[in-house]
Each structure stands twice: as C-alpha cells, then as structure tokens.
Amino acid sequence: MNNLFLLLLLVFAGVALMVVLGGRFAKPANPEQMARLRRWIIPLVGIMLLLSAIDFYW
Q1: Can you tell me the distance from the alpha carbon of 1 to that of 7, in angstroms, rounded to the nearest whole number?
Q2: Which of 5, 28, 8, 27 is nearest to 16 (CA)?
Q3: What single DSSP character describes residue 54?
Q4: Mean pLDDT, 10 residues at a time, over the chain (58 residues)?
C-alpha cells in the first residue's frame, strides 16, 4: 500500500511540474502549425478509436 501512495505522489509531482513548466515556458502555436497538427491528429485519433473497438470486441 505504501508503494501505491509513493507512485501516486510521484505521478502527481510529475504532472504538477509539467503544468508549471509548460505555463511558464510554452509559447502559443501559430495557426499554420495548429492546422498541420490537426491534419494528423484527427485521423490518428479515429484510427485509435477504431483499433480500440476492434480489440474490445475481438
């Protein structure tokens, strides 16, 4: 049980560190870069959902 609490504490600390550093050093993306990313992310999410459904029902 102590290992679980230690693991949860480490995960929480890592996420908090990413949020703090991302808020401090991240720069906003320009619209062209967002359009390029969106062109890839939306089909990849669709493929992931399809493969997940196939894995669940197979």
Answers
A1: 10
A2: 8
A3: H
A4: 93 97 89 91 96 95
d(CA 14, CA 21) in angstroms, rounded, equals 11
DSSP string, 12-49: HHHHHHHHHHHHHH--PPPHHHHHHHHHHHHHHHHHHH
* DSSP secondary structure code for residue 11 in this structure: H
C-beta neighbour count of 55 within 10 angstroms: 8
**Structure pTM?**
0.52
DSSP summary character for residue 56: H
Name the token pair of 3.
Answer: 């290992």
